[in-house]
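Deliverable D5.2: sample structural annotation.
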Amino acid sequence: MQANLQQQVALVTGAGKGIGQAIADKLAANGATVFYTDVQEDNAVKAAAKGGGHALKLDVTDSGEIAGVMDAIMARCGRLDIVVNNAGINTLVHRVTTDQFPREEWDRIVAVDLTAVYEVSKAAAQIMRRQRRGRIINISSIGGVVPLRLQCAFTAAKAGVNNLTRAMAIEFGRDGILVNAIAPGSVMTEGTQKLFYGDDGLFRENVQSMIDHVPLGRPGTPDEIAVTALFLAAPENTYLSGHILVVDGGWTAGYHRDF
């Protein structure tokens, strides 16, 4: 898929690797001026150098850094057209029931996966409303569409992202701002390698039972999520807003079985 994003300015959070990097690369390859931001500045610099964009350090839980990044983009480009709220985390070790889930881990995940989406979107929307146009794309998860066991903070945060997406679409539509979310299923990233797909993944023994519920029979790729983001950012997409676009190989379409 190709889209003409010439003269468009984009900000992608968590763009130092994985899905965020793939989305930033896709936007840059289609002509956008892209700011690759990441809490790990070295990762942002490497990704931006490879993808042809600009690197900025951004801890999405730090409102001061968010304001600084917005100021830097406006000073350099004078506009902001596309924001992709991709930065997100989950727990690797606390896969336990809600009554056993540590409060500090809840706070850490919700701060990045939900509160930061609000903070970045708030700052971006103030710019976009003045422009009378813009696109906000939030990376959610199927965990925000259907509940997942032993991930109470992650699923609660992503469900919040989905309704925040819809609320912003309602609020900002008259200002020419489209707000949508992408809800990926299992995607082959560094994080899922550590959990599932790597030879030493923590839950390697559960991989096949999980994949058995995906009609396409495999995890997704970061590029498949990036193509979806490009569609939402494309100038031709003029009437889709407030939508949660599930990209999961059919996982949540229904119970998959062979009988």
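Annotation notes: The beta strands are 9-12, 33-38, 54-57, 82-85, 134-139, 177-184, 244-247. Residues 98 and 136 are 31 Å apart (CA to CA).
The annotation will be released with the project's public dataset once the embargo ends.
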